[in-house]
Structures are given as C-alpha cells and as structure tokens.
Amino acid sequence: MKIKDLRKLKGVDVDKKLAEANSELVILQGQANTGTPPKNPGQINKLKKTIARIQTLKNQNKNQKKEEK
Q1: Measured between alpha carbons, how far is 53 from 58 in angstroms, rounded to an integer?
Q2: pTM (2 decimals)?
Q3: Phi/psi zone of residue 40: left (φ > 0), alpha (ψ -120 to 50 degrees), beta?
Q4: What is the pLDDT along the chain (69 residues), one digit of tens a residue?
Q5: How far apart are CA 57 and CA 59, in angstroms?
Q6: CA nearest neighbour of 25 among 52, 5, 6, 57
Q7: Taking a C-beta distance cutoff of 8 angstroms, is the pair 16, 42 a contact?
Q8: Which of 13, 44, 47, 57 could form a disulfide with 9 if both were Cys (CB 3.0 to 4.6 A apart)?
Q9: What is d(CA 37, CA 28) in angstroms, rounded to the nearest whole number?
Q10: Cα gap 49→20, rounded to integer Å
Q11: DSSP assignment of 10-43, as one string?
C-alpha cells in the first residue's frame, strides 16, 4: 500500500490496517518456516514494507501533535 493512500485513512483505520498486515505476515512466515511454498514469494517483503510505512506514518503524526502543543 502506498503512503499517500495511508495518509487518507483515519487513525482507527490505520490501526486496523497495521493489525491486518501483522497477522497476514505471521501466517505467511509460518508457512515459509514449515517449508510450504508460498503462492506469492514477494508478498512477505511487501507486507514488511507496508508495516514500516504505517509505523512511520504513525510516528510522524505523533511528532506533529507534540510540536503543536
């Protein structure tokens, strides 16, 4: 998911996306660890990048709120 799409989401929706991405990543990593071939090998890397983008966005929002005070 692109950062511009994530910026359009509200705080609760961002948290839901983060939870979904984390749960999907756990499932895919579990499959990879058991030796099951993944349907899409690049999916794990995409999920990791999406999680990093979401966490970066959350940190930026938190820092902006601190500066406004």
Answers
A1: 9
A2: 0.85
A3: beta
A4: 788 888 888 888 999 999 999 999 999 999 999 998 878 889 999 999 999 999 999 999 889 888 887
A5: 5
A6: 52
A7: no
A8: 13
A9: 10
A10: 14
A11: -HHHHHHHHHHHHHHHHHHHHHHHHTPPPSSTTH
